[in-house]
Amino acid sequence: MSARLARLAARVASGEITAEKRIRGTFDRLMTGESGPDRVNAFISFDYDTTVAQAKRVDADPSLRTGVLAGVPIAVKDNICTIDSPTTCAARIMANYRSPYDATVVRRLRAAGAVIMGKTNMDEFALGSSTEHSAFGATRNPRNLEHVPGGSSGGSAAAVAAGFAEASLGTETSGSVRQPASFCGVVGVRPTYGRVSRYGVIAFASTLDQVGPMAQNVEDAALMLQVIAGPDAYDATTVDMEVPDFCAHIGDGLSGLVVGIPREYQPEGMDPAVARSFAEAIGVMRARGATIRDVSLPHTDLALPTYHAIASTELSSNLARFDGVRFGARVDAATPSGMQALTRGRGFGAETKRRILMGTYILSHDPALLAGAARGRALVTQDFLDVFAAGIDVLFTPTTHAPAFKLGAQLEPYEMYMSDVLTVSAALAGIPAISIPIGASHGLPIGGQFMAAKWAEPLMFRAAAGLESALL
Asked: Of the residues 129, 130, 134, 152, which is catalytic?
């Protein structure tokens, strides 16, 4: 599937269509899809006049009109700061917050000529796997409105799947780009940790969070990453290295690639349709010249508990700033402690409180657990290092163990946390990963996931594009 975004931008650059006309057409679809009882609820905020004004600026500025994303409508997750719209993190405590600056990734999108359509719904503070934990109501899956779109970047995935935007930005801590991409039948990318700036992204877990693109095909996702990647003086966790051409080998196909199939990523209880689509995808890769090898990542079972220990403690620290004094809304009371209790009690949702309490308990009463989690993370990371050092080019697994579940069907915390069981290891190791559609079950998409060594995004995109092309 060729790059749709590049073709759209080329039409604006050539004068065949104006950015304004394109954006008005996309906005019409958005308004139709986000009104009435069957609305998707992919967006928390959007404004017609602001969006059209952006498009007019693209048409008036030659440097923007010839940009690689000229006039392309992009949706942005609502924990990524934008100067011209609220940034709420889908939380009551942030409902009226407006950032005085654009996040680096947004600034880079605008510089490439992209038009920001609005801010997408999410699980509050990115805490969830279904986009049901939002102060602005749940998002529904455009493929089947009775089902969730995944999370926490469910609004960003739904916006692309519904045609409200050509591409979007989400954020990932344990799988919050890849899992909703799988549920909604789009492509979602987690870059190598340090590849993309987090400046202007409201932090959940600082050693895990990454911004990632979602798009309708692999090449579009690669182009999006090309635009937002690179070092940033405002983010010391970005790595000062040249950004490669992510599309340079995207058409080279699967022949000659060595694809590892981790046995630990085929758990008991996997949905039969997922297992079938996964097996068929492996057969397609083999037929296209890839070498398939069975491999082991023996410490995979440590990944989920390790992640929750690390992520909850980092969350507890990061959300301490929302205290009614420095950031967010404030509920007045007779004493400072009473004010803080009321502000946080009313401003945070149930899942946010649950995870803050978990992290605070570990930090104050069980620091040995955090030390153990650090050792677990090192073991999970070493598994990947060993596999790639043994000659494996990419790993291939299902993205999730089942298609999207029904709204309201999986709200028990442990079951919700298990939604990330196949995506969390890559996040802990800081390696790149991508989810692409590989099948469907009763109209619900099924995703397959490629993982590669750190900084090996070009190889990852090649493998993903090769399978995508073969499955068309």
From this structure: 152
